[in-house]
Amino acid sequence: MEKSLKGYEFLNLEKERLLNHPLFNDVLMKTISSLEVFELNKAKKFALLYYPHILRTRLYQANTLGITPDENIQFVLSEILHDEYGSGNIENSHMQLYRKFMHAMRLQQEDYQQQNIIPELQEYISSMMQLTQGDDWLAAVAAVGIASEHPIPKHYSLLLKGLRKISGVSEEDLELFIGHIDLDIEHSEQIEEAILPYLDNPKNQIRFSRGIDISMNARRKFHHGLYREVFG
After folding, report:
1. For residue 181, what pLDDT is reported?
2. Are 220 and 21 in contact (CB under 8 A)?
3. What three-state secondary structure class fits 105?
4. In degrees, to the nearest 5, what angle opens at C-alpha 26 toward C-alphas 189 and 104?
5. Given CA atoms 92, 98, 101, 102 in this order, what sign does their dihedral have?
6. 84, 68 in Cβ contact below 8 A?
7. In the prediction, which pLDDT does 88 show?
8. Sign of the CA dihedral 60, 90, 95, 154?
9. Cα 194 from chain centroid (whole Å)
10. How far, CA to CA in Å, does 150 sit from each of 69, 87, 91, 101, 227?
């Protein structure tokens, strides 16, 4: 199947729609990005409530790899998973880098071992697990390969404005967030290249948009829950 301008046009419109999603202008993003000081007790609460989300992103990617019939897309998802798990060094896994961020705030294993999953995050987890274990592989790829990758540079850039205001937290401690700004651009471009042959078909475009909407709308609800718990 040949790539066509129609497919490129559709994908570019979807990417533009992603970057203009209300999530980037919601109350959590506005609050964190405008902080003069991110008080340590609130920063700790944010980090602990965000941790269960960080732990599960790779599960959605692995599920999607398992239901996707296209070997080129499987290959890209396996490359993304390899990066997420530290490219062969478990100490550099993205879960471990997030724990380094928590340790910089003097959080200990006993603080985060008992995960506190707020209802909005449970809804996001349930939605993503259902999607990535379901029968619409194209929607799943859109959710984990585009919606979970393409917006992250903008998302993490906004978060970093606040995270850099936490006393005692260095740039090295924020490696997970800083590193993803470039890495997720690469991941998104890899998925785009592999998925383009399917995006000339109007029915496929509907499936693709559905996957993006499921991910982004559920994540926005998660943001509102985080705001309530941390700042409300």
Report:
1. 76
2. yes
3. coil
4. 75
5. negative
6. no
7. 86
8. negative
9. 19
10. 22, 21, 25, 23, 23
pTM recorded for the entire structure = 0.93
Q: Which two tokens stand for residue 31?
A: 């609050």
* Domains of the chain from N-terminus onward: 5-230 (1.20.910.10)
Instruction: List the chain pLDDT tens, one digit each, 232 residues.
Output: 444 458 889 999 999 999 999 999 999 999 999 999 999 999 999 999 999 999 999 999 999 999 999 999 999 999 999 989 998 888 889 999 999 999 999 999 999 998 899 999 999 999 999 999 999 999 999 999 999 888 989 999 999 999 999 999 999 999 999 987 776 577 778 899 999 999 999 999 999 999 999 999 999 999 999 999 999 8
Rounded Cα distance, 185 and 124, in Å: 23
**DSSP code, position 34:** T
| Token code pair at residue 9 | 């046009």
Q: How far is 22 from 24, CA to CA, in rounded Å?
A: 5
Residue 126 burial (CB < 10 Å; 0-12/13-18/19+)? Answer: exposed
Residue 188, pLDDT score: 75
> Which residues have a Cβ under 8 Å from the Cβ of 193 and sit 6 or more positions away?
76
Structure tokens at 145: 């390969």
Instruction: For 130-161, give one letter per residue: b (16+ CB within 10 A) or e.
Output: ebbeeebbbbbbbbbbbbbbbbbbbbbebbbe
| 3-state helix vs strand vs coil in the chain, percent to 5 | 80, 0, 20
